[in-house]
Amino acid sequence: MGLLRRERRSLLSVHASKVAELGGLTVEMYRFGSWRSYLLQERCAELVGIEARLADIDALLGTGPAAGAARCSCGATLRSGAQFCSNCGRTVGTGGADRAPDDTIVERPPTRDH
Hints:
Largest sheet: none
Number of strands: 0
Mean pLDDT: 79
Structural class: mainly alpha
Radius of gyration: 17 Å
């Protein structure tokens, strides 16, 4: 368990620096009008790989998303206040008038009665 926790801390640090790096890269590409989508795709693929490993570690440690966390229709857990799904990119709607044009709806997992 100790090794997994250390790996998780390390991955979180790497993830944060890669997100910052991706943001800087995007700004520089915009600033100089030189879009290189292959670079962005490579960086995003690295982040997705790190996030997948973090999810695996969380599952092994039993520290996954909190029970009752909101989920997108694709099954991904939505972060509090999210406007888009980090997994599929869909706009997050709450149903009714706020429903996204692609009919994405937020599904909540069943609650457990103790």
